Amino acid sequence: MLYDSQEKYGAVSRFFHWAMAVLIFWQMLKLFDRINEGEHWVGQVLVPWHISIGVLLLVLIIVRIGWFMSQRANRPPVDEQLAVFVKVGHGLLYLGMVLMPVTGLAYMVGKGYGLTVFGVQLVAKSDGIAWLASIGGLHPYIAWTLLVLIAGHIVMAFVHQFIKKDGLLQRMLG
């Protein structure tokens, strides 16, 4: 089943969720690279792909938002008592997933590093743009905030599965 239904999320929604979860996890490893100053396998193997994966995530989140909007009426129901929290929580997750690559791109271009994605140069190196670099300076703060939001998302999925026992996690697993 490609489309979402009242019983479970469709294959497209599940693909976006889990593919982006893996890619975001990959990206978050950069935080630990920063903590340990890149002197380990993460800094050597995964970090060189950070910018390219970030741009891929930006494309995926834009398409995912479009898909979400088209499937909104088909989604499994939300507990009415918690609807505001669910909407705010998911809204903040989506906002964070948009702002992360946008601020990352702002940092790269603003600092004059240029932008090369999967080996293709999209923006040449330059002298930089100070105001754009300032916006890019928000990137690490948004990363830590997004990490907290993701942790909360995971905790709530387990609460639904093991405490409420409402099958929410099963709907996303297929």
What would the keywords be for this entry?
2 strands, Cytochrome b, membrane, 174 residues, Fumarate Reductase Cytochrome B subunit, elongated, cell membrane
Describe it for me?
The protein is mainly alpha-helical. It has one domain (11-173): Fumarate Reductase Cytochrome B subunit, CATH 1.20.950. The protein is 69% helix and 4% strand. The chain contains 7 helices and 2 strands; from the N terminus they run ααααββααα. It has helices spanning 11-35, 41-46, 50-71, 83-110, 130-136, 139-164, 168-173; strands at residues 115-117, 120-123. A two-stranded antiparallel ribbon has the order 1-2. Strand 1 and strand 2 form a beta hairpin. Helix 1 (11-35) runs antiparallel to helix 3 (50-71), helix 3 (50-71) packs antiparallel against helix 4 and helix 4 packs antiparallel against helix 6. The protein is elongated. The termini are close together. The mean pLDDT is 92.
